[in-house]
Amino acid sequence: MVPTLTGEVTGAQLGTTLVHEHLFVGDPQLDLDLPHPEWDSEAVMAEAERQLQGLAELGVETIVDLTVPGLGRDVRRVAELARRTSVRILAATGWYTSTVLPHFFHLNGPGRLVQVPDPLLRLFLGDIQDGIAGTKVRAALIKVCSDKAGITEDVAQVFTAAAEAHRITGVPITTHSDPSSRGGLEQQRLLGSLGVDLSRVVIGHSGDSTELGYLQELAQAGSFLGFDRFGMAHTGSDEDRITMLLKLLEFGLEDQLLLSHDAAVFSRITPPSWRAVHAPHWRMDHLHRRILPRLRTQGLDPALEHRLMVENPRRMLTGA
Question: Which positions are annotated as binding Zn(2+) 1 (predicted)?
Fold first, then answer.
């Protein structure tokens, strides 16, 4: 069974799934003290409902919202949205930082000034087993992050807590990685050393790499590769993503590929006005409106499309 924001479903009920998306990306402190001029709660909710309805009409049945603490997760807002749409939404736990954690985590925890159990592990397990932020909405997976700085001391702290939560609960781990520095390999080495089953790991943003050897090495370790930034023009071209995807399919790696966008309805980091100019196709309908039709002309048959969009997400989320 997989927890969604509107109740548990079986893996078979997930259907066509976008595995790496965001709905509302914010920052609690900035949102309080420096509100973004483009944020209008009612208008953004209406736009989110409109976009999800459009996805449902295209055949999308489930999206995974990887907005975790560090990116302004608001599960109550997303749960309200989930009640308005037929598209299932899955929530995630984790902590998004590519460098340092809030100072609280430096002083609170085992062996620290305030001797308490690891608060990150307590957060992750509570989100997965009990519910997020006092709700009954449970997380379906764990999100972690490293970038050009690599595995810093604080990033390692997050990965360590995520690995233990994975071992206890069995939920998968998905990452934000930096393909330009081959960062997915460092992530795999650390997670593997911490006892994580690498076949339950998604190395996110792998599709931004044009280095075939790097992608093959990631795949050989057993992980899923996230081709999850279609439409994100400022991190790579869709032409390159399609080329690399087709090459990996030729190598028989179709069981390890996941397709998505890493898009958002609203993000204060890259707000709607900026996206409209610099990444106009960076939307959650881009795969179905442009990329999948293009792949079909290059030999993507219905069975393979079903594997990429239905079966692989199901196996990633359930382990079955």
Answer: 20, 22, 143, 262
User: What residues are paired with 227 via a beta bridge?
Assistant: 259
Does 118 count as an annotated binding residue? Answer: no
Please name the helix (run of DSSP H) or strand (run of DSSP E) that holds residue 65, with its range, or none: strand 62-65
Which sign, positive or negative, has the C-alpha torsion 11, 16, 19, 21?
negative
The tokens of 65 are what?
């919202």
Q: What are the sequence ranges of the domains in the chain?
A: 2-318
DSSP 291: I
Q: Which residue has the tokens 């919202």?
A: 65
Residue 285 among known ligand-binding residues: no
Residue 205 annotated as lining a ligand binding site:
yes
Q: Give the tokens for residue 26.
A: 């914010």
Q: How many helices (H) and strands (E) does the chain have?
A: 14, 12
Kindly tell me if the per-residue pLDDT of 244 is higher than 90.
yes
Q: What is the pLDDT of residues 283-292, one digit of tens each?
A: 999 999 999 9
Per-residue pLDDT band for 210 (boundaries 50, 70, 90) equals: very high
CB of 110 within 8 A of CB of 61?
Answer: no
C-alpha span between 90 and 156 (Å, rounded): 25
262 in a labelled binding site: yes
pLDDT of residue 56: 98
Let me know how long the chain is.
320
The CATH topology of domain 2-318 is TIM Barrel (3.20.20)
Q: Is 176 annotated as a binding residue?
A: yes
- Give tens-digit pLDDT for 66-85: 999 999 999 999 999 999 99
Q: Residue 220: what pLDDT?
A: 98
20 is in an annotated binding site: yes
Q: Which among 195, 238, 248, 194 is positioned nearest to 217, based on CA atoms?
A: 248
pTM above 0.85, yes or no: yes
Judge whether residue 320 has pLDDT over 90.
no
